[in-house]
Write a structure and sequence with these properties.
alpha/beta; about 350 residues
Length: about 350
């Protein structure tokens, strides 16, 4: 029997099971206190950077989003639905693959899903792995270039109204598609911004396709940057929590990233993710940054915007915990996790029932 005097926080901290993070997740959701509800504070080295002021509901979503709160990565998972194959820009480091099962990087998936297939996959995975709290669309192309993105979110929202809906985009169509995003309930958004200087951006992006016309060079970069910044500001003003990804590309934007961070501070961006270049495509011959170089850039940016340091550069069909992508696991391994999750949830229910009886006694 559990003594009546024992606190619920103590239950959370004392439980001893295999993969206890899953059971801890269950109790944290059930017995969330104000302290547990809040995401980790911004650990900026500059106290003038307070970050945007967010409401209670958004703070709850952040605390359960593995990409926005580093503490959440060990407790909560996400599922990426690969329903968006088309892209409207061509970055020099991007190679999209639609039937790839071996690589683990953005832009790849083992299969492109229809909205209906995506809904069925979500139903199955959320039933089997209840620690997943975020449903996201991150490719393998750009979500805003695919009508299927909004069809999928419509279906997901009707079936799971409490789930956090998330999206990753290059931002080209963000100003025009923002109202559609708000309509379907997107509350967290990632925008990839690799430069705010058109001369630098022109070296990173080969071309864009905007309103049916192909643009290249500085002209393309100017359009893209303008739309990204306008879209981010509008999204923040609309109450969406925004994360910005920046691909650190040595010899091209490595000295410029801190200028991006300063602009993000002005726009009210919540968190920034400086990602190392994956040298492929037109940038196959470039050397990616070292871990130390990336760390130095993050430190330079941190006075202006909180830094994400636990990114896994996920596939477009990833699901599970950030460090435990089940899309890359064998069926046997997934079944083991499924069994463990079920056992832990059953144990959680037993403890809850027993504790409730004690409280009523």
């Amino acid at each position: 029997m559990i003594p009546k005097c024992i606190s619920r926080v103590c239950i959370i901290n004392a439980l001893d099971t295999k993969n206890s993070h899953l059971l801890r997740s269950y109790f944290t959701i059930k017995f969330r206190t104000e302290e547990n509800n809040l995401p980790e504070k911004n650990q900026s080295i500059d106290e003038t950077n307070k970050g945007p002021i967010l409401g209670e509901e958004l703070l709850r979503k952040i605390s359960e989003h593995p990409c926005y709160d580093k503490n959440a990565q060990h407790k909560y998972g996400r599922i990426h639905l690969a329903v968006a194959p088309k892209c409207n820009i061509q970055c020099n480091f991007c190679v999209r693959e639609f039937d790839c099962v071996n690589e683990s990087r953005p832009g790849v998936t083992s299969k492109v899903l229809t909205p209906e297939e995506a809904l069925e996959k979500t139903k199955q995975i959320l039933a089997e792995y209840p620690f997943i709290k975020v449903v996201a669309i991150a490719g393998p192309g750009d979500p805003l270039a695919n009508d299927e993105t909004f069809e999928t979110f419509d279906l997901i929202r009707k079936e799971f109204p409490e789930i956090t809906l998330c999206m990753s985009t290059n931002g080209l169509m963000l100003p025009e598609k923002l109202q559609d995003m708000l309509r379907v309930g997107v509350s967290t958004l990632t925008v990839t911004v690799n430069a705010i200087d058109p001369e630098i951006q022109a070296k990173i992006v080969n071309h864009i396709v905007y309103h049916g016309k192909v643009y290249r060079g500085v002209e393309a970069a100017e359009i893209l940057i303008k739309n990204q910044l306008q879209g981010i500001k509008a999204a923040v003003d609309a109450g969406i929590v925004v994360k910005v990804n920046t691909v650190l590309t040595p010899t091209i934007n490595d000295k410029h990233v801190v200028e991006i961070a300063k602009k993000l501070n002005e726009l009210g961006v919540y968190i920034m993710n400086v990602m190392p270049l994956i040298n492929q495509g037109a940038f196959a011959d470039l050397e990616p940054p070292t871990a130390e170089e990336r760390k130095d850039v993050q430190a330079a940016c941190e006075p202006y915007v909180m830094q994400m340091r636990h990114c896994r550069q996920c596939r477009a069909d990833a699901y599970g915990l950030l460090a435990q992508d089940m899309s890359q696991m064998s069926e046997e391994r997934r079944n083991i996790i499924k069994i463990q999750t079920k056992e832990e949830m059953e144990k959680a229910r037993e403890i809850l029932t027993e504790n409730d009886k004690e409280e009523k006694a």
